[in-house]
Write a structure and sequence with these properties.
The structure holds two protein chains of two kinds. Chain A is built from five helices and no strands. Chain A is mostly helical. In chain A, helix 2 packs antiparallel against helix 4. Chain B has seven helices and two strands. Chain B is mainly alpha-helical. In chain B, helix 5 packs antiparallel against helix 6. The longest helix of chain B is centred in the C-terminal third of the chain and has 34 residues. Classes of the chains: A mainly alpha, B mainly alpha. Chain A: This is Cytochrome c556.
């Protein structure tokens, strides 16, 4: 009896663990994009003049963004973590169905960030042009892969 | 209703649509199409979509003003009908003969109201939309609660599809009048002159 109970418990464990993992992955993924937003937000605000331009602050935010692109995000895209599987995420299942396109859009973002870093300290105008290019890559990916709430 | 056959003496060709209203109509058509196309297929930096949207807002403001103080056929009082009148017109509308209506007929008037409401909501949701890309943020997004700004892009997209459907309905209705009812509604919107019942 004890043996049966134990084996049932063990058999049920992976499913429970996976559900918990999925939620953790979603939390981590949202955390990653929160970091992106935290660093990119002030750059966009400076570009638009909603915040005074500060070359040193701009450079620091840009460097942090570049640091984020060094993180290999593949763990954030574990299977079973789409909006169809887990609550609290806007990540469409299309990401997993068309991972090639998703990765291309991700690369476009990384490249735009790489192009932003060297010009972030060159004044509001140059920053603005680079910010627009980064923002465009955000939109391009949101259009296809982010659920509208 | 009137007799089945309308003799030529029962109708007259008069100026129904004033020049500003006609310019408004074609400008609205152009800018709504432009907005829609730029929104669906345009650049990811949506500056042109924004400007086209501001033009639509200006045109809507003009139409609202014109519906209050403009020439008679342009006013709310002549194109907003009671449900009973709309139903009565709809019951007759399938008949293959011109309506000779002086201005917007009751069903057309209902459509005008629907289109103006949808376009106004479309403008509003666009102004407050925050698509979380930092570059295409509506100018009033920070003036509304963040959940509204976050949900607005979804509403804006839905209303864009609804606008498209309304435009298609409009074109189908024009074709129906032209081909089935033998009444040209396009020329009056170009020249202002419409053949109407006396």
């Amino acid at each position: 009896m004890r043996r049966v109970l134990l084996s049932t418990l063990v058999a049920a464990l992976p499913a429970v663990a996976m559900a918990a993992d999925a939620e953790r992955v979603v939390e981590a993924r949202k955390g990653f994009f929160s970091l992106v937003a935290l660093e990119f937000g002030p750059l966009a605000a400076m570009a638009k003049g909603e915040m005074p331009y500060d070359a040193d602050a701009a450079k620091a935010h840009a460097a942090d963004l570049v640091a984020l692109t060094k993180y290999d995000p593949s763990d954030l895209y574990a299977p079973g973590t789409s909006a169809d599987d887990v609550k609290g995420t806007g990540a469409k299942a299309a990401i997993w169905q068309d991972m090639d396109t998703y990765q291309k859009k991700g690369m476009a973002f990384f490249e735009a960030v790489a192009a932003l870093e060297p010009v972030a300290g060159n004044g509001q105008k140059e920053l603005g042009a680079a910010v627009n290019k980064v923002g465009a890559t955000c939109k391009s990916c949101h259009d296809d892969f982010r659920a509208k709430n | 209703m009137s007799s089945p056959d309308i003799s030529s003496s029962a109708v007259e060709t008069v100026r129904i649509w004033d020049p500003l209203l006609r310019i408004f109509h074609w400008a609205l058509a152009a800018f709504v199409v432009l907005c829609w196309g730029l929104g669906k297929f345009g650049p990811d930096i949506m500056t042109l979509h924004f400007y086209a949207g501001y033009a639509v807002i200006g045109l809507l403001a003009f139409r609202l003003l014109w519906a209050l103080v403009g020439p008679r056929p342009a006013r709310f009082t002549s194109f907003v009908y009671r449900p009973r009148a709309i139903l009565a017109y709809a019951a007759e509308a399938w008949r293959p003969r011109p309506s000779y209506w002086r201005g917007h007929n009751p069903l057309g008037g209902l459509f005008i109201v629907a289109l103006l409401v949808v376009l106004a909501l479309q403008a509003l949701t666009g102004l407050v939309a925050d698509p979380d890309d930092f570059v295409n943020v509506g100018p009033l997004a920070s003036s509304v609660p963040s959940w509204v700004a976050g949900a607005a892009p979804g509403w804006h997209e839905f209303l864009g599809n609804l606008t498209f459907a309304l435009v298609v309905l409009h074109l189908v209705a024009i074709a129906f009048y032209k081909l089935w009812k033998r009444e040209d509604l396009i020329r009056p919107m170009l020249t202002g002159l419409k053949t109407v019942r006396r």
